[in-house]
Amino acid sequence: MIRKLLRKVFHRAAPSPAAEPALIPLERHGIRREQVSPAARKTCKVLQENGHKAYVVGGAVRDLLIGHPPKDYDVATSATPEEVRALFRRSRIIGRRFKIVHVLNGPETIEVSTFRASQDAESAETDEHGRVLRDNVYGSMAEDATRRDFTVNALYYDPERETIVDYHHGVADLQQKTLRMIGDPRTRYREDPVRMLRAVRLGAKLGLAIDPEARKPIREMAVLLENVPAARLFDEMLKLLFSGYAVRCLKQLREEGLHHGLLPLLDVILEQPLGERFVWLSLENTDQRVRADKSVSPGFLFATLLWHEVLAAWENRKAAGEHAQPALFSAMDEVLDAQAGKLAITRRIVGDIKDIWALQPRFERRTGKMPYRLIEQPRYRAGWDFLRLRAQSGEIPMELPDWWDRFAHAGHDERDALLRAAPASDDAPAKKRRRRRRKPAGASAETSDAS
Ligand code: ATP
Ligand code: MG
């Protein structure tokens, strides 16, 4: 108790709130209220009209300042969740750890949170490594700014007055392209190790350099990520992989030593020479799609990230005498199980991954009714995209995805011709024998061994 008190007096862990924030006028920041989504504007307006403080906060302000279109809007307010809920008919309170309110407006959902204070490591509930487990005390606006992670994330934009309230020199940092932690970086990483991953992701996405003071401790503190729940890590990895800057993020993660031994997935991605080309191709592809606002599928991406692991495990099992098909399924489970402890890939995504993998050997069978059945599969397109990526990386000949592309788009006669011209399946010698028995004479190209 006394030790705790002394620690508190002599070593105040949490940064103290900045006294006076800077009020930055339109001429200096240039964000007009019309640039803010109508739903976020309306939400702030209603809250303000009812006597509360309300600002657009966090990522959206930061993104507007550097000319990125924000992907969603958060509003911070002095109103309690119940007060917010009462002001908007289409709203609901969500969250167990701390309550926030989703305000629905047209197609948009605005996330409204009440100003919160951070608790320092002494008074907060933490795990044995200092990770803060609960963070749900309401506080002043200044305290709300101070509990945020980076200075560029602690900017409050008032759409009515078109001003930014800046407690921690975030605007200046953004102009100088610096990602600076609020408070002592070591303390802040200890409270929440995910901030290390956020630093890398935001730095890569926004083209900001991580301030040396925030960058230096990462390597030695990386090990703290081991204590973060697997589900939270998975959420963060999804954000990273679908940020539109996955290639940059992963290169940076490697540089900061954040991938080693912590996330088996990243170890796999970055240190398998055979699959490296495949993985970078897939990530580049994902980045392009995200930036072009096209849909992306986590199942597809994770299937690519882990594919060469599956291939290796599959080969081992086949070499040990297992039959190809069951060996593939066991290899898939083996790889996914190894992953599950650290990074909790959700069950739905695991299902998608397996579908895509399980289709791959079926592309090798180009005889009889099989191809007709395959192209009718609901996951055919994803399976084919995956096949093409494998070919682009040099794992298999381009002839295979090309053949399937022609087959899928061909008329009846052309399909027959394609089937006759297809090289033999190389996956099942037993089948070849069967086919030969049925068709002893005049074996066509498909049953020859020349594949
Ligand atoms: P993105 O572009 O990915 O949405 P973001 O900064 O908006 O980036 P969010 O996860 O949406 O990220 O978080 C919204 C805001 O909440 C952040 O800008 C930051 O102020 C605060 N925040 C989020 N995560 C943390 C954290 N781990 N520690 C402290 N503050 C955080
Ligand atoms: Mg955000």
Automatic annotation (TrEMBL):
InterPro entries: NT_sf, PolA_pol_head_dom, PolA_pol_I, PolyA_pol_arg_C_dom, PolyA_RNA-bd, tRNA_ntf/polyA_polymerase_I
Superkingdom of the organism of origin: Bacteria
EC numbers: 2.7.7.19
Region (Disordered): 418-451
Keywords: ATP-binding, mRNA processing, Nucleotide-binding, Nucleotidyltransferase, RNA-binding, Transcription, Transferase
Name of the top EC class for this enzyme: transferase
Active-site annotation: D72, D74, D149
Domain Polymerase A arginine-rich C-terminal, chain residue ranges per copy: 321-438
Basic residues bias spans: 431-440
Recorded catalytic activity of this chain's protein: RNA(n) + ATP = RNA(n)-3'-adenine ribonucleotide + diphosphate
Any one GO molecular-function label of the UniProt entry: poly(A) RNA polymerase activity
Residues in tRNA nucleotidyltransferase/poly(A) polymerase RNA and SrmB- binding domain copies: 207-268
Function: Adds poly(A) tail to the 3' end of many RNAs, which usually targets these RNAs for decay. Plays a significant role in the global control of gene expression, through influencing the rate of transcript degradation, and in the general RNA quality control.
HAMAP family: PolyA_pol
PANTHER family: POLYNUCLEOTIDE ADENYLYLTRANSFERASE FAMILY PROTEIN
Protein name, per record: Poly(A) polymerase I
Gene of this entry: pcnB
